[in-house]
Amino acid sequence: MRPFLDRRRGEGVYEPYGPGRVRETSCYLEFEFPLGDADAYAVLYMTTKTLGKEIYLQANVDEVFAGLIWPPFEVHEHREVFLRELVRIRPVFAQVVAATARDRFDPAQFLFMLDPDVGSSKLFVTTALGNISDTDPPDRLNRAIVGLATLTYDLLVELTAIPVNVNRVAALMTSADVRRGVNRALRWVDANKEVLINSVKPF
109-136 pLDDT, tens per residue? Predict the structure, then answer.
């Protein structure tokens, strides 16, 4: 599954959907929306739980956030302190971390889920729609897509504007896995800062 911020236009058979387009596979719906003139795209997925009908909207942020959210910390207390430091001056990130800690989808949470394209788990910003029926307001899905796309976009812009201060968290990076997670996030910021600066929100 493609990352939320993708600099490549998707391949395959798409249908128009609002300002973007949508592609259906046997496992998910893929929504793609241009980010202004930045030659980049916001990509969201709609999936259902296995053997159920609960609808999830997801944005793949594995490359940038997986190592910050759930690295295999050697000491559990360090994970809590480390996350507190990360959320201290990042209100959007703090909002999603708080929802994750409460296992709530309001507005969304970080959730590891299976990527059927590769057969392994990835980290997504995820919100739940419950069951969608013909009696629902016609714009219910659209409003959810706009909300998740905006939240995830703001999350990435915030991290780019306020990258992890390695010197400040150095004492908390006692594990090689933690250091790798931080360095991975910093590499993502370096590679994508210019794209985000030149982009606009998908809606």
Answer: 999 988 999 999 999 999 998 766 666 6
One-letter amino acid of 25? T
Q: 12 is written with which tokens?
A: 């395959």
Show the tokens assigned to 41. Answer: 């795209």
Q: What is the pTM of this model?
A: 0.89
Instruction: Write the CB contacts of 102 (distance below 8 Å, at least 6 apart in sequence).
Output: none
Residues 6+ apart with CB under 8 A from 25: none
Quote the CA–CA distance of 8 and 148 in Å, as a whole number. Answer: 20
Residue 17: beta bridge partners? 20
Helix boundaries (H) for 88-199: 91-101, 140-161, 166-169, 176-197
Which residue pairs, CB below 8 angstroms and at least 24 apart, start in 75-82? 75/174, 78/172, 78/174, 78/175, 78/178, 81/172, 82/169, 82/172, 82/173, 82/178
For 144, other C-beta atoms within 10 Å of its C-beta total 20
Query: Could you tell me the residue ranges of all domains in the chain?
Result: 5-197
| 8 A C-beta contact, residue 111 and residue 124 | yes
User: Sign (positive/negative) of CA torsion 183, 188, 194, 198?
Assistant: negative
Residue 185: CA count within 13 A, CB half-sphere: 26
- Return the bridge partners of 15, or none: 22
